[in-house]
Amino acid sequence: MKFQEIVDSLHPLVTEHSLTTNSENNPEITGVAAVNEAVTGNLSYIEGPKFAAMIGKTAASALILPHDEALQQQATQFGIAWLTTPEPRLTFAHAIKLFYRPFHPAPGIHPTAVIDPTAKIGQDVFIGPHVVIQEGVTIGDRVCLHGNVVIYPDVTIGDRTILHANCTIHERAQIGSGCTIHSGAVIGSEGFGFVPTPDGWFKMEQSGYVILEDGVEIGCNSAVDRPAVGTTRIGRNSKLDNLVHIAHNCQIDENCVMAAQVGLAGGVTLGKRVILAGQVGVANQARIGDGAIATAQTGIPNDVAAGEIVSSSPAVPNKLYLKVSAIYKRLPEMYQTLKSLQKKLE
Length: 346
Description:
Layout: H1 3-10, E1 31-32, E2 42-45, E3 62-65, H2 69-77, E4 81-84, H3 88-96, E5 108-109, E6 114-115, E7 120-121, E8 126-127, E9 132-133, E10 138-139, E11 144-145, E12 150-151, E13 156-157, E14 162-163, E15 168-169, E16 174-175, E17 180-181, E18 186-190, E19 194-197, E20 200-203, E21 209-212, E22 217-218, E23 223-226, E24 231-234, E25 239-240, E26 245-246, E27 251-252, E28 257-258, E29 263-264, E30 269-270, E31 275-276, E32 281-282, E33 287-288, E34 293-294, E35 299-300, E36 309-311, E37 316-317, H4 318-328, H5 331-345
Parallel strand pairs: 1-2, 2-3, 3-4, 5-8, 6-9, 7-10, 8-11, 9-12, 10-13, 11-14, 12-15, 13-16, 14-17, 15-18, 16-21, 17-22, 18-23, 21-24, 22-25, 23-26, 24-27, 25-28, 26-29, 27-30, 28-31, 29-32, 30-33, 31-34, 32-35, 34-36
Antiparallel strand pairs: 19-20, 36-37
């Protein structure tokens, strides 16, 4: 499609009059690519002045730019069509949708699927090969269940939710509308509940259930455990990466994000818009306030205040961690200085 057609499709996300007026600067766009990998016919983006040098190096035919006149002038000099927007990366994400459609099979039920007669199936549902749906399950409209999905009894799944191949939903789990659960994920598995006795460990039955609110996304091979009593809840529009573990009774509010290998112990509470980077671990019953951020490999033993940024293990304020890290690199030199001073004192 022509670049102007893309601009029109993205409107009103982009700024008016953002396309250069030269007629030759309305190239044919055949796809999208990273700025350093783009070829003729590709659309890419520049997030800010930090990447200005890429404008002269890229082969992209068109760029999404921030509101920066210097970047716009540079793109024009190289004959690159451009549009401006306050959020180039977000606009580029919308542009990708113009060229890529995720695989979504047509509605239908594969003959190898096993569906209990008590299950309630909505309209325009796809149920793939070897899917198992047990008694009392309710599935909404336009749900997509890929091959080998197993759904235990009394599960509820909302409209437009997608369950990818080989994921498992345990009994009584409640999954909202517009959720995505990726391959190998397990929702509602038993929480890790054992009581010590003189004779060993006594298993505490996990009679609770898991709730995923609307728009939640769960990555591949992640696990969200049900509790002994009560619920484990993932709030609206929260996103979990691959290999994330959410233990029993965790309460996660809306719009939280967790990168790969995050682990939450039992009873953890997260406020709204919390960000946990890769391999963050959170101890039992810890509470993390709205908008808090933990950088990669942070170990959180206690509560974190709203809006705080923490790093290291055990967690400390990020600014303190950066100062300590700078000193850490100088420890060998400082040690030699200390030895030298000791000799002089002796």
